[in-house]
Amino acid sequence: MTKQVTARAHTNIALIKYWGKANVALNIPTTSSLSLTLDKFYTTTRVQFTDQAQDELILNSVSTDSTRVSGFLDLFREKYGDFPKILVTSENHVPTAAGLASSASSFSALTGAMFGLLELKPDEKEMSIMARKGSGSASRSIFGNFAVWNKGWDDQSSFAACFYDEDIQLTMIVAELSSERKKMSSTKGMQLAQTAPTYADWVNKSAVQLEEMKNGIIKRDIEKIGRIAQDNALGMHEQNRLAREPFDYFTRQTFEIIEFTKQCYKEGFLAFVTIDAGPNVKIITDRATERQLLEKLHQNFPQIRFEVAHAGEGLKYV
Ligand code: DP6
Question: Which SUPFAM superfamilies does its entry note (predicted)?
Fold first, then answer.
């Protein structure tokens, strides 16, 4: 039987965002970022050698365009020596309707699987470097709980590491909103955002927020974590609106949920928001509050689906 290796990686949500590249070809970011890996959403990927003429990707049982995956596998060929074409079979347990980015879990799982197939030393730093080149945020999904991606300055210095490997009882409630507008990829979106006149200020502020965030995590201060994450994310989206070609990921529902969350906070609930390259809102709260908050959300937004997620584990072989 031909050798096959299967790996699973979970998606992560940044509390301090990666939103801009200092080096586009290598995915070296303008800021260091910090994320929480989630238990609920993940990708399982199997790789094996094939004698076909091309690398092939089967995603959720459907043969899919493999251009990006094949380009990524070529990076392995360049770095570790040539090998036959690869059949990649991937199951995404990230609801695409929810617009949650699956590139983090996908490239992290694929990296892990390829390290296994090529019998490379399972060095987490090297894995994070490779995953980063597939998709920046994938560098962090190698790790469970809280990970920091230190931006570095070149290929070998830009990688993530586990920052705090304990579940601090943080909850993320994901509001699955449908997008009313044409999708703008994160790759393109961040490129535009970097043209905002205030972008350098956001980058500088982000470095300060990162240190405060680390402190909040160590102290298990979810209120502090949420406040900084919300400020960092809203600042990121402000750059999009101020870009030379302005754009906005928020929809009417995004604004409504943000307002609702702010109102909940005024009423004494622990509740903050973070938002990525799409309309979905992730509400940051804690385990003690999640049920009550979820009830309130269901009452006010009966048409919206909410998913509750907690801290998840890092890359695993299955
Ligand atoms: C808003 O990692 O998807 O989720 O490196 O171009 O593939 P590429 O971008 P990607 O960007 C993620 C952006 C974000 C913030 C974050 O995860 O830090």
Answer: GHMP Kinase, C-terminal domain, Ribosomal protein S5 domain 2-like
